[in-house]
Design goal:
By secondary structure, this protein is α/β, with parallel strands linked by helices. The strands form 4 sheets. A 7-stranded mixed sheet has the order 6-7-4-3-2-5-8. The chain has a 7-stranded parallel sheet with strand order 12-13-11-14-15-10-16, sandwiched between helices. Strands 17-22-21-18-20-19 form a 6-stranded parallel sheet, sandwiched between helices. Strand 2 and strand 3 form a beta hairpin. The structure holds adenosine-5'-diphosphate (ADP) and magnesium ion (MG). The site of adenosine-5'-diphosphate has 16 residues, from helix 13.
Length: 701
């Protein structure tokens, strides 16, 4: 298929005038013939069956009936009029009803010819009626390209209202296919086609729109889904290979005195096997001549920080600097104060750079960084500023990846001419399938083991009406010397209301836990950073027993003595957020608790979320449920990814196919890294056309 022809603006298609073209563009993003061809149906309706009017049941849904319009009238109703046509077949009569577009319909409707009426039927006023039916002349219906299995295309309310019904879309598709006489060029290699028994591109595209049979439809879907996933994986795997072969990384050959001294005499605990394994992965990467770009997944509390620190020591042993970036000041502060004694023990210099660093402090840090006096810089986004220049940055660690975008990652890369090694750490367990497609260009390590001696957090779900009991329980815990979090939701859209909830909650907690027996900290987004830090410090030092907060404490904060996490309006949090919050407790030796407070009225999804939290403490299991409930679109960190814009494949349902696609991408690139073998010409051609994979179907044809 000539590319040029496919790039024809949609306005040139017969049946598409300027109005329709504008609508197709704005509502469905369809600009060209190409785009229309890749408007894939959401579902299909079986139209092999015709109904008779007296054979309709009250609970029949979508049906098609052959009949004639015998009369037509307008009926006045409360607001406006409705247009009613009597529709008859040999067995009886029913009504067709329209609430809009009367003039046009009256002009179009022909009496005494056979129509096929298709739509949902209602039982109304003692007879059946069909509102806004799809009507088509029987003669045209018989002539059409389409078959008994009818596609249902994605649509919008506006399209429907403006007369671009599913029928119209089908018509346009027919028009397009009959207007384009050339074959679609094959975009997969014979190897792939034959070994997977895929049908050709031509057959696939034709059958996805006009399925000849159920079996051909399945084959078309199978092939097109594979193709979509395959080209995404091909890009990811290719990027990874290029990075490894072309972008030379610093080669950290040795593990030297800092690492050995620390490991030998200052390690505060025995590492878990998982931690040891990950450190080995990282050492291998950093000593391989290629740039490391690794994602470290580990549930909250699994001990990622010490892994980060040991990795930094390797960089320093090889004469380089290291940096660690956290998404919030609180977290950066905590990393700083956690790492400081470790650094001091072995004579390393460390500094903290955040938005609140004073100018004089900044200047000093900038100078020391450039001189190479500083070994480690911990901080927030402030590190990304252009003014911050390292003498020789060897390793950049990003904690809690989902708060940072890909663009920010690449900014770190450019702090040197040779990019530093990059380690991205996340506590959001991403199911493997998703990780593969979102982070397919990163290598992945997992810490799948918690440090020994941890007691799993006991989780319960309580209704607001049980609050007094909950308070009593908390008093007991505080008497035992424990500390308690109360967390309130804060959602952008309802900020004022949420803020009021938080303040009301704070007041009632203050009443229940009065001074001087109890001291309470409060932290929320509207406070100044310094005040937040002050309140946080009081809680960390144990001066306050209760911390009332919004989700600012969600990420990373580590206070082992805090053993109770009360989550207010828990139904308003997503699963991954609930899991993150729960991870704030259970870090000490004591039994910890998570109490999910909700109202009595809970939707099905909320109920599932609460049950999942009560049942499981396994982050990966929770992430799987989350993925099923919400779909991949909302999972944190995936916003910038092409996964969201998949047109035909589905990351949850097509897991196996994704694995197959990735395998093929790997095998192919291993055998033919530059796609130069003659047999791979179709793939190479397609690949060259690939821009960003968000619009992958614009290029696969
Ligand atoms: P996260 O992976 O959530 O960042 P941290 O690195 O903050 O977890 O570790 C959580 C807590 O567990 C810290 O107090 C840390 O000192 C402790 N810890 C980490 N690894 C071990 C280990 N192998 N044995 C005992 N405690 C550990
Ligand atoms: Mg952490």
């Amino acid at each position: 298929m000539a590319d040029a022809l496919l790039q024809t603006p949609i306005d040139y298609l017969k049946g598409v005038g300027p109005n329709r073209a504008a609508l197709l563009r704005s509502e469905l993003g369809i600009q060209t013939y190409q785009d229309l061809i890749h408007l894939f149906p959401n579902r299909y309706i079986d139209r092999t069956q015709f109904y008779t009017i007296n054979g309709l049941q009250k609970n029949t849904s979508e049906v098609q009936i052959v009949g004639r319009v015998t009369s037509i009238r307008e009926v006045q109703q409360k607001r406006g009029k409705r247009l009613v046509a009597t529709f008859r077949d040999a067995s009886g009569q029913m009504e067709l009803v329209w609430f809009r577009g009367h003039k046009w319909i009256k002009a179009q409707l022909k009496p005494n010819v056979d129509y096929v009426a298709f739509g949902k039927v209602n039982w109304f006023n003692g007879q059946f009626s069909m509102p806004h039916p799809e009507l088509e002349l029987k003669s045209e219906y018989d002539r059409g390209l389409r078959t008994a299995i009818q596609p249902v295309y994605p649509s919008t309310e506006k399209l429907g209202n403006q007369g671009i019904s599913n029928r119209v879309l089908i018509k346009l598709m027919e028009q397009l296919f009959s207007q384009i006489k050339v074959q679609f060029e094959e975009s997969l290699s014979d190897d792939i086609l034959i070994q997977n028994k895929f049908i050709s591109k031509q057959d696939a595209l034709r059958n996805i729109h006009f399925p000849k049979s159920q079996s051909l439809l399945s084959k078309a879907q199978f092939r097109l889904k594979f193709e979509e996933l395959f080209y995404i994986q091909l890009q990811l795997v290719h990027k990874n290979l290029v990075r490894k072969s072309k972008i030379k990384g610093f080669n950290f050959e040795r593990v030297g005195p800092y690492f050995n001294r620390f490991y030998g005499s200052h390690l505060p605990f025995e590492l878990t096997n998982a931690q040891k394994r990950v450190i080995k992965d990282i050492r291998t990467d950093m000593g391989s001549n290629a740039q490391m770009n690794r994602l470290l997944q580990g549930d909250v509390g699994s001990g990622k920080t010490i892994v980060a620190f040991l990795s930094m020591l390797i960089a320093i042993d090889n004469g380089f600097q290291a940096t660690m970036m956290a998404p919030t000041e609180i977290l950066a502060n905590q990393h700083y104060s956690g790492l400081k004694p470790l650094c001091e023990a072995i004579g390393l210099r460390l500094a903290l750079l955040t938005g609140s660093s004073k100018t004089s402090e900044r200047k000093r840090i900038h100078a020391q960084l450039e001189d190479g006096d500083l070994h480690i810089l911990v901080g927030t986004h402030a590190i990304l500023e252009d003014k911050v220049q390292f003498n020789n940055l060897g390793l950049a660690i990003i904690d809690e990846q989902h708060r940072f975008g890909v663009a920010q990652r690449s900014k770190l890369w450019h702090k040197n001419t040779t990019p530093p090694h990059v380690l991205v750490m996340t506590a959001t367990p991403i199911p493997r399938t998703l990780a593969m497609s979102v982070y397919g260009d990163l290598d992945i390590s997992v810490i799948d083991e918690l440090p020994p001696g941890r007691k799993p957090v006991k989780t319960v779900h309580r209704f607001d009406s049980n609050r007094l009991k909950v308070f009593r329980f908390i008093k007991d815990e505080i008497t035992k010397g424990r500390q308690v979090y109360f967390v309130y939701p804060l959602i952008k859209e309802s900020q004022t209301l949420d803020f009021k909830d938080l303040m009301d909650g704070y007041e009632s907690i203050s009443r229940e836990f009065p001074k001087p027996d109890y001291q309470i900290s409060i932290v929320h987004g509207q406070m100044k950073a310094a005040d937040k830090a002050y309140e946080m410090q009081r809680f960390i030092k144990g001066e306050t027993q209760i911390m009332v907060a919004t989700t600012v404490i969600e990420v990373g904060v580590n206070i082992p003595n805090a053993s109770v996490m009360v989550i207010e309006s828990a139904e308003r949090f997503g699963l991954s957020q609930l899991h993150q919050l729960r991870g704030r407790v259970g870090r000490g030796a004591e039994q910890s608790y998570c109490i999910l407070m909700t109202s009595h009225k809970l939707g099905d999804d909320s109920q599932t979320r609460m049950q999942t939290m009560v049942r499981s403490t396994d982050g990966f299991e929770i992430a799987e449920v989350d993925l099923k409930l919400r779909g991949p679109g909302d999972i944190m960190g995936t916003q910038q990814s092409g996964v969201l814009r998949l047109k035909i494949a589905n990351i949850i349902q097509d897991k196996a196919l994704l694995g197959l696609a990735r395998q093929w991408a790997k095998t192919l690139l291993k055998e033919d890294p530059n796609l130069t073998l003659p047999k791979n010409i179709p793939i190479h051609k397609t690949y060259l056309k690939l821009g960003k994979y968000k619009n992958i179907w614009n290029y696969i044809s």
